[in-house]
Specification:
single chain, 573 residues, mainly alpha, three-stranded antiparallel beta sheet, two-stranded antiparallel ribbon, 5% strand
Length: 573
């Protein structure tokens, strides 16, 4: 392709847009069904498959991901090109930028392209290995096709919209077309790997004249004209089978067909040479700068109950780009970006100074965030070593709690790092507030614990364990009505309702409301259902204690017989 050409209009893109619109309509109807009925199929989202890696739970998201992987191994990455909402957003962003006369340049990084593999391992492989290592087994423990907690694993609307805006639009401007797919998407890592096995590929016949329309039309940065010349097919795993190349070919030389997979493809030209690195691609030293920038961005913004994992991968890619831009701005005498001169013979242009300021601000912000994350790591390490003192705190009378001698140094160290984070971070941090509240309670400051926990609950309402900690504190102080209210509010987000009913039942026992306690334990049994003998035995044990206190000996003995039967089930291999 001697010179850049204007791509022809693709008929396939219109069909694909219609299919992606239909996908979004189905997703919207799915959410609407859950909102109306209160229960629906689990989210059609591959990230839900993490439940299997962590807890052995098979759900709809896992099945969708499995089907996508298997289909990709046969047909190629049609799932990515024709069903992924993030691809739809990125292509929409690309079309919008092109209308403005902006054609994003792909980054072409070698090391940053390994990030999706890291993401896949973090999400699916490491938790599965950890579960096996800690004795949790490797197989299926539960099947969950429907759920009442559809939105539990998704961020709030604000963070969700920010994720779509940054990962679906902003990333495209800086990293190139489908930049999130190339440098962040964990699902793309496995789908790209199995794509090499797919016999169904874009193939060429003898009518190809190497005009380059196919490459110009490709929105996945694939050098289509070169690959079909060298291999007779597209072998790049980045090909998402959008079919734009097939549609725009003026000679009808391209088609989708079965044949030799990419892993077995051999060059069909005698003088085949591996394509040279494109002009402007990062050097190996710059690749290291990109990796350093990614790590700063990923760790600097990850977590805090605000930035989810997939979002932080996209942010990491952006910070990597700005780190590379800053290194080039500082290290080159002549530099242009996006067709605009940044430096000329060592002199800065106005645009160059603005870009340098922006890049420095982004990189320094990420570095500052990473420093806070390091402090948080040290805080968490020492806080975890105060667990024995915290575990029995609310079991003792007020004023009797004390820090174990062997945990006092860890308490002091954790408090030091928590206070440092509070001083350095101008924004509220729920995790830091949580640990700081506990550390102050262990110093005898009950008022600070209550105030801190209320702030944590308000900032992270979906984390029901925080609200339960606050309820336990109120019970410890004898403030039963307030504790009851906190526990009742947990029902909105807590997945295991039987545990909440057990907590409420124990609260009613302390409040001497024995009839209400029995009702709570009965509700817990109903919420638990069958197939959980250990949990059922626990609830029935609570009922026995209440029944005996009420003088209901016969009913208590009946419960004991049921517990014996449950233990027999547990003892069976």
């Amino acid at each position: 392709m001697a010179q850049a050409i204007s791509p022809r209009s693709s008929k396939a893109s219109r069909w694909r847009a219609a299919v992606l619109l239909l996908v979004h309509l189905i997703l919207g109807l799915h959410i609407l069904h859950w909102l109306v009925t209160g229960r629906s199929l689990g989210p059609l989202e591959p990230s839900e498959g993490m439940a299997f890696s962590k807890q052995g739970v098979v759900n709809v998201g896992l099945m969708l991901f499995a089907v996508a992987i298997l289909s990709c191994a046969v047909f190629g990455r049609f799932f990515c090109g024709w069903a992924c909402h993030m691809v739809a957003l990125q292509d929409l962003a690309l079309a919008f930028l092109k209308r403005l006369g902006i054609r994003p340049k792909p980054l072409r990084s070698r090391l940053l392209a390994l990030v999706p593999l890291f993401g896949f391992g973090y999400m699916y492989v490491v938790p599965w290995i950890y579960r096996a290592w800690t004795g949790g087994g490797v197989g299926v423990r539960e099947v969950e096709w429907t759920t009442e907690h559809f939105w539990d694993n998704f961020p709030g609307w604000g963070v969700g919209l920010a994720t779509l805006a940054i990962c679906g639009f902003v990333v495209i401007y800086f990293l190139g077309a489908k930049g999130y797919c190339t440098y962040a998407c964990p699902y793309g890592a496995i789908l790209g790997a199995v794509d090499g096995l797919a016999p169904n590929r874009i193939r060429v016949n003898d009518d190809c004249q190497q005009c380059g329309h196919c490459t110009a039309a490709c929105t996945s940065n694939v050098q289509v004209h070169r690959e079909v010349r060298d291999f007779g097919m597209v072998v790049d795993a980045g090909c998402m089978k959008c079919l734009d190349c097939v549609s725009v070919c003026p000679n009808g030389a391209l088609r989708v067909g079965f044949g030799t997979p990419a892993v077995l493809a051999k060059p069909r030209v005698a003088d085949f040479k591996k394509p040279a690195r494109p002009k402007g691609a990062p050097s190996w030293l710059e690749e290291i700068v990109l990796v350093a920038g990614f790590l700063l961005g990923f760790f600097g913004f990850r977590g805090y109950f605000v930035v989810p994992f997939l979002f932080s991968l996209g942010i990491g890619g952006l910070v990597a780009w700005f780190a590379l831009a800053l290194s080039r701005l500082l290290g080159r005498r002549d530099l242009s970006m996006g067709g605009k001169p940044m430096r000329k013979e060592g002199r800065w242009t106005g645009v160059g100074m603005a870009m340098a300021f922006l890049a420095a601000l982004v990189v320094l912000s990420a570095a500052w965030g990473s420093l806070l994350r390091w402090e948080a790591h040290l805080r968490d390490k020492h806080f975890a070593l105060t667990a024995r003192s915290r575990a029995v705190w609310f079991q003792l009378e007020r004023g009797e709690g004390e820090i174990l001698i062997e945990e006092q140094s860890h308490h002091a160290a954790s408090l030091k790092h928590a206070l440092r984070i509070e001083r350095w971070n101008p924004w509220a941090n729920p995790q830091n507030q949580l640990e700081l509240a506990w550390l102050r309670l262990m110093d005898g400051d009950e008022a600070s614990f209550e105030a801190g926990m209320k702030e944590v609950v308000a900032a992270a309402p979906r984390q029901t364990q925080f609200r339960m900690d606050l309820a336990h504190f109120l019970i410890w102080q004898g403030r039963y009505p307030e504790a009851r209210q906190e526990l009742q509010q947990c029902f909105q987000y807590h997945r295991r309702k039987h545990q909440l009913w057990a907590e409420l039942g124990l609260l009613e026992v302390l409040a001497s409301n024995l009839d209400e306690a029995l009702r709570c334990f009965e509700q817990g049994l109903q919420a638990l259902g069958e197939g959980h003998p250990a949990e059922e035995a626990r609830l029935r044990t609570f009922r026995i204690q209440v029944l005996r206190e009420q003088g209901e000996t016969e009913r208590a003995e009946a419960e004991e017989r049921k517990i014996e039967a449950l233990y027999q089930k547990l003892e069976k291999p």
